[in-house]
What we know:
Shape: globular
Number of domains: 2
Structural class: alpha+beta
Amino acid sequence: MAIFAIMTLNSCKKDEDALTPSGIVDGYILPQGNNAFDNTIVDYYNKYNTYVLYKFDREDIYWTPTGYTIPTLTGTSWSSGHEVAMAEEAYIPAQLELLKSNLFDLYPEKFLKKFLPAKILLCSKVDSIATGYNATFQPVKLQKSIGAYSYYNTICVNYGNSTVTTLTAADKTAFRKKVNTMLIDNIISRGLTTPTNDFINSADYGTAMTTWAQALGKGIIIYYSGVTPLLDWNAYIKAMMTLSEKQLNQATDIPSTSVYATPPSLGILNARKDTNGQIKKRYAIVRNYFINEYGIDLQTIGNASNP
């Protein structure tokens, strides 16, 4: 297999800040080995300018421009975050196939070139971290295995282990929903989405809202102080990528007037919430934008993740 060097991350990483911490190598060499699956990984880089890595270090996992995100015990609680371990090479072919069928195959190349993060880390473990307490009320680190995790320009993907050979259809559906949710979270966190003028001009953001009913009546599907068209646009994207059309059309009640209530994505296209038909109109603007601009109907992602 031919070995070649990939340019440094500072010169080619998508949307990457020029900031790098002292002592951190800011480039990678592909392929990372001489396995048959390395060809697939190199092809992904050539197509999408994204590093799919199965060998990585502490900085690749935890570094961001604002500091390290290593879960630590401070006082009586663990900081939120994740812990990962590198994939076992024997299971990477199956892991790559899982990733292909539940992420790469769902989008056209133009979309992936624009929105994939700089790195996808292939892991044998991806655990979310939270705080629990034992019988004597001492803090305990709680670890929960999850399918994928998103942070600064990176997505960590689980199942680079023997579990990948025993995943059920339901497990694969859960993974599809998780990894695509992490993708949209990553896209939003990098500020890559911009509302169209049609979307901005189709709702009144200038008049104060005091209830969810008022917000939904305007076609605005988030409600708290400082709502902007960008935040609303992103909420529409996330709704259609994480929920099926059946769920979006489900009859559900408007939330309480509390601004801290959960955003009411479930049922937003049903007349019970879309009291003036504005949500359907604005939903169509967002959906059609991605169809026309990138050749992808984002609602198909939500439908596939919620069969």
